[in-house]
Amino acid sequence: MKKVGEIRAITRRMKILALNALIEAARAGEMGRGFAVVSQEVRGISEEVDAMAVGLEAELGGEIERLSGMARDMARSAHGTRMVDQALNAVELVDRNLYERSCDVRWWATDSAVVDAAADPTPDLCAHASERLAVILRAYTVYLDIWLIDAAGRVIASGRPERWAVAGHSVADRGWWRAGRGLATGDDFHAEDIAREDLLGHAQVATFVTPVRVDGAADGAAIGLLAIHFDWEAQARGIVEGVRIDPDRRERTRVLLVDRNRRVIAASDGHGILTEQVGFDPKGRESGFETDPRGGSVAFHRTPGYETYRGLGWYGVIVEAADARAQSRAA
Predict the structure, then answer these.
(1) Of 207, 232, 289, 293, whose CA is between 20 and 30 Å from 170?
(2) Distance CA 67, CA 49 (A)
(3) How confident is the model at residue 126 (pLDDT cuts 50, 70, 90)?
């Protein structure tokens, strides 16, 4: 638009020159008649050029606005794609982490000390199983505790009895206990949604279970249950806080993990965990990006699962509030 302005400035100068030339021609009388004709022509041309400039300005104005709109849409789309990728990255990290937990529980359920105590829960065998579980916990610090549970749903051994006195407590009312009892083979496991466990100081846990079977055989009869309690709060916080957000957007951006009911199970700002429900609607989509009239946006991606861990229908979610500066400019 700057060049159009320059053209119009030149035509204004031409008009002034033509007007001055007409004045001088009038003073010259008959001698200036030919010069007056030329001046009239110059004035006419300048008016034509000015009219063209006006038309060009209108045409270019619309074209420039259209191009600006396309640029804004492309920038918004690129930003949305990045946010969806960040949401996917967060939930993928969870999937890979929890896949390892599913492997752990199936492996440790075949430990001879665990199998022996489940088969014959004498005080000595249960104490030996507890010692073995304590060794595991010293190596695997991502767990709060590991419980060996008998066929009636009573905890008979645990890895941290000095911290949590859970032996003798019944867990038969837990959803994961009922789900675990129905698993068909030693290759199967059950992963529970995030919950607070009263026997572990109301800590947030991701519990994985699998039956302990006769002789540790995959097709053996179930004689008990092994439950491992993943320290969810500490591990999930590291994931959501580790997502790289642009510095100029960090203060108004939340990185979330939500369950299948869109309940917040992890949040980069630490708010709403297990109490807040995020208002986005995936509408059956695996992923998506949406904006609201106020200028905010939300991106999400459903768990893709990893190896034999299929996921629990969780989502990685990035919620970005509207930029206050942009809102004030719009106002």
Answers:
(1) 232
(2) 26
(3) very high
Taking alpha carbons only, the member of 303, 298, 305 closest to residue 278 is 298
Q: Which two tokens stand for residue 296?
A: 């905010």
CA-based nearest residue to 309, from 97, 145, 87, 140: 97
**pLDDT of 293:** 78
- Nearest in space to 112 (alpha carbons), one of 140, 132, 136, 134: 132
Distance CA 25, CA 40 (A): 11
Write out pLDDT tens, residues 109-122. Answer: 999 999 999 999 99
Quick one: which of 6, 1, 9 has its CA closest to 60?
1
Tell me the β-bridge partners of 264: 258
Distance (Å, whole) CA 224 – CA 153: 8
Residue with tokens 């009911």: 261
Give 158-207 pLDDT, tens digit per residue: 999 999 999 999 999 999 999 999 999 999 999 999 999 999 999 999 99
Give the sign of the dihedral formed by CA 108, CA 111, CA 115, CA 117: negative
Residue 74: the pLDDT is: 74
Residue 330, pLDDT above cutoff 70 = no
DSSP state of 214: G
- Average pLDDT in the chain: 86
Q: Where are the alpha helices (DSSP H) in the chain?
A: 2-28, 33-108, 112-119, 123-139, 175-181, 232-242, 324-330
DSSP-assigned letter for residue 295:
S
Q: Which two tokens stand for residue 285?
A: 């989509």
Q: Distance between CA atoms of 121 and 150, rounded to whole angstroms?
A: 8
User: What's the full length of the chain, in residues?
Assistant: 331
* Average pLDDT over every residue of 68-72: 67
- The helix or strand, by DSSP H or E, that contains position 144, with its residue range, turns out to be strand 143-150
217: three-class secondary structure by DSSP:
coil
3-state secondary structure at position 226: strand
